[in-house]
Amino acid sequence: MHAKAMRTANACAASLLMWSSMVAVAQTPMTVEPVAQDLTVPWDLVWGPDNHIWCMERTGRITRIHPDNGSVEVVHQLEDVFQSWDNSGAHSMILHPDFPRTPYIYVNYTHSEFRGRLSCLRYSVQHGRVVDEDILIPDFRGNTSHNGSRMQEGPDGYLYMTMGDAYNDMSSQDETSLSGKVLRMDWAGQAAPDNPFGNRVFSTGHRNPQGLVFSPEGRLYLSEHGPATDDEVNLVERGRNYGWPLIEGPCDDPEEAAACAELDAVDPLAAWTPTLAPCGMEYFDHPSRPEWQGSLLLTFLKKQHLRILHLDETGTAVTSQDSVLYQQHGRLRDVLVAPNGRVFVATSNREINGWQFLAVDEDDQIFELVNPDFDYEPLTPVEDLEDLYFLQLAEFPQDHGLVFPQPAKEGVTMFLPEEVESVTVRLFDASGRLAMGAEPHALAQPGMLHVWLGDVRPGMYVMDVRAADGSRWTSKVLVQRH
């Protein structure tokens, strides 16, 4: 019998014993308190600078949820999300690190059965909604499932994003393909200049990664689904190969020995057979629950629990595991840890491949795991994002005349003094010819000028902006199209 098949058979026989011994060992008291209900497959949870939970559902609905009273504010509904009978749809979301002063929301979603995209949504704090979409990567491979995905800001300031293999498993080994990878980009979607393969690819050999998190020390952890064996948690390093589809799990199979040697493949920190379907993951290091400090928190779909992976002092090995919430709330899709140690979990019971019989009246939902004996530091939710925007401007003023993003695709933004109400805008090409003009041009919000580039051709331009009092700001603008 093939070694992987033997492992599967042995693991299946031992699974009842394993789960009878996998009991919650937490010593700190814990209560489960509902936060928001009646959601539809909340896929990705993000803690915002406004001290709200930002949630993207598989349908493409983006909401802003008050963590204390559970009020749900709809921010945007993506129009082109394609949802299959399985797991395609909206998959990952992240706010720009300088949000809302830099008012961008990044989303990864499938727009047809076999294609996906990475988009940048511009949020207007004045209007309280998304006002346009800039498609950064217009057309990468997608499928009914195996799309991933998660996004994180790295300690180096770059955007990291996981991509599933989209059911084309050998693409994970193709360094020129985005599928089955961890990508590393700037916030305009361009490859980081020092990436190992000269493109957006940071690491290769992944199958369907649905969890991604950095530790405070800068270590990058990833969770991914295996086929029938070897779900994995990996410590991701620059340029390394994680084996799929040539290697499943650790290099412990003689039939995989040649591939392990050739690829210099990295063994996972943890692997599970039979598969349990791991999803969202967070790093926990807070005194609100001392026994979880220095651990990875990982949600599971098939075995419906939150697992705690205790790491050693170096963060490079899992020393022990335990679990909570086992089969109490159904399929768990994501976990979020707030800066003050509060832990939020999202269910995934309304999805079709969850057989829907798991759903109850309040599903899908977000709930909080609370230590009733701990005095959590208050993080006051900011109701109006415009208040936060002005606070950021006052605390960290931008240089007037600074433009972003660079390069620009659909539009460009320039920081201006808050008292400026309208300006004339002209765009000149490298020969000094007028390529675009608008007068007057009202500011979308105080201190921030947004200019839609329309049909301006790719190239280098100079943007000249003038206020009624004679003030003037100029900047180079590089325009790139898809």
What does this structure look like?
The protein has 482 residues and is mostly beta strands. It has two domains: 24-370, Neuraminidase (6 Propeller); 399-479, Immunoglobulin-like (Sandwich), CATH 2.60.40.3080. It has helices at residues 3-21, 257-263, 385-395, and strands at residues 31-36, 42-47, 53-57, 61-65, 72-77, 90-95, 104-112, 115-124, 129-141, 151-153, 159-163, 181-185, 201-203, 209-214, 220-224, 231-236, 270-272, 278-284, 295-300, 306-311, 318-324, 332-337, 343-347, 366-370, 403-404, 411-415, 422-428, 434-442, 448-452, 459-467, 472-479. It has a four-stranded antiparallel β-sheet with strand order 1-24-23-22, with no helix packed on it. Strand 7 and strand 8 (115-124) form a beta hairpin. It is globular, with a radius of gyration of 24 Å. It starts with a helix and ends with a strand. The model is unreliable at 11-25 (pLDDT under 50).
Concise synopsis of the structure shown:
This protein is mainly beta and 482 residues long. 8% of the residues lie in helices and 39% in strands.
Q: What overall form do the CA principal axes indicate?
A: globular
| Helix-strand makeup class | mainly beta
CATH architecture term of the largest domain: 6 Propeller
Q: Count every beta strand, where a strand is a DSSP E run of 2 or more residues.
A: 31
Distance between the termini: 50 Å
The CATH superfamily label of the largest domain reads TolB, C-terminal domain
Strand order, main sheet: write it out. Answer: 1-24-23-22
CATH topology of the largest domain: Neuraminidase
How much is the average pLDDT? 90
- Largest sheet: number of strands, sense, barrel closure: 4 strands, antiparallel
Q: Can you count the helices? A: 3
Computed over alpha carbons, the radius of gyration is: 24 Å
**How big a fraction of the residues is strand?**
35-45%
Compute the number of structural domains: 2
Helix fraction bin: under 10%
Spans of at least 5 consecutive residues with low confidence: 11-25
